Amino acid sequence: MRHSAYQNRRTFLKTVGIAGAAVALNRTTLASAPELKVPHRKLGRHDEQVSSLGIGGHTLAVAKTVEEATRIAHEAIDYGVTFFDNAWEYHEGRGEEWMGQALAGKRDQVFLMTKVCTHRPGQQGKEKALAMLEQSLTRLKTDHLDLWQVHQIGSEAEVEAIFAPGGVIEAIEQARKQGKIRYCGFTGHLNPKMHLRVLAHKYPFDTVQMPLSVFDSHAEGFQKLVLPELIKQGIAPLAMKTLGGNGQSVKDGIITSEEALRYTLSLPITTLISGIDSLAWLKQNASVAANFKPYTSEEMAALEKRCAAKSQYEPYRHWAYLDGHSRYANVA
After folding, report:
1. Which residues, listed in sequence order, are joined to residue 150 by a DSSP beta bridge?
2. Which domains, and CATH codes, for the chain?
3. Which of 35, 14, 41 is nearest to 279 (CA)?
4. CB distance 266 to 302 below 8 Å
5. Mean pLDDT lowest among 141-145, 183-187, 279-283, 315-319
6. Which of 29-38, 103-112, 292-301 has the lowest mean pLDDT?
7. Is the pTM of this model over 0.70?
8. What 3-state class would DSSP assign to 240?
């Protein structure tokens, strides 16, 4: 009888111990698991899936340190963010250098994009573009890009230069054949009509990056003029300048960052590229993307009415940044 009671007690303690260990293991697993999961969307006409939220390389490079930028990148990947944006000229090359360090050992977990900056005087043409590509690959510590975009098209002369003999399109074709890029696209924020001029050539671009925000919803905006053409051609729309390019709209209390992000995510876009320079901003924006529910048409209209006739929150329509002008003004 005594032996039986001992055995029963021993069995009970063993069972409790196993259950307790399972609970402890489950708690550990839950604690280490990402608390947010950013969804993915289709890349235009392709089957490829990329995250609906992207990390902007320009802002990432203004984090306090490269170590902080690395922490942001790693946590973003844990949240399911795959799209990483950059450009050859950002911060005189630091943008790509920091991102290259941040993604060391994690390159195969991300969709990596950078931009070729042939909009600069003296930097047009195939050979200049290919030289920039080699520098970008070196800084980003990779042998290929998932996406290479022609940066900041803002004039008719730039549009024509892209397709001219010996232009950047020839560089794109060569780089693709060499396996150094997978997809191609172009960007711009000054004039939607220049986007339409490029698109009229019917070149099979995979992506187009442009401002898309509630402040851009007017008749002369990228949303009304360019977005429908991208959908028609099966090109993936990449959104930027969601807060107006400098966040002043949020500071002025016109709109909250959550409203602004949710509005743009409610449009038929692939990825919203967000300027994030801290873990706090990353968590806030990733939360919006992870918990996203599209606005109704009535809610969209109400936000547009609230933000109508506020062109001061589209400063990008009146200026062009030329980061890196001093150090990398000339490419070999």
Report:
1. 116, 186
2. 39-317 (3.20.20.100)
3. 35
4. no
5. 315-319
6. 29-38
7. yes
8. strand
**What is the mean pLDDT of the segment spanning 158-167?**
94
Average pLDDT over residues 221-235: 98
Tokens 């230069």 belong to which residue? 161
Say whether pLDDT at 6 is over 80: no
152: closest CA among 33, 262, 240, 244? 240
pLDDT digit string, tens, across residues 62-88:
999 999 999 999 999 999 999 999 999
The token duo for 280 is 């706090």
In angstroms, the CA 80 to CA 35 distance is 10
**Six-digit token string for 53:** 């939220």
Least confident stretch, 88-92, 167-171, 326-330: 326-330
What phi and psi values does residue 210 have, to the nearest 5 degrees?
-160, 165
Residue 29 or residue 193, greater confidence: 193
Which 3-state string (H, E, C) describes the chain? Answer: CHHHHHHHHHHHHHHHHHHHHHHHHHHHHHHHCCCCCCCEEECCCCCCEEECEEECHHHHCCCCCHHHHHHHHHHHHHCCCCEECCCCCHHHHHHHHHHHHHCCCCHHHCEEEEEECCCCCCCCCHHHHHHHHHHHHHHCCCCCEEEEEECCCCCHHHHHHHHCCCCHHHHHHHHHHCCCEEEEEEECCCCHHHHHHHHCCCCCCCEEEEECCHHHCCCCCHHHHCHHHHHHHCCEEEEECCCCCCCHHHHCCCCCHHHHHHHHHCCCCCEEEECCCCHHHHHHHHHHHHCCCCCCHHHHHHHHHHHCCCHHHCHHHCCCCCCCCCCCCCCC
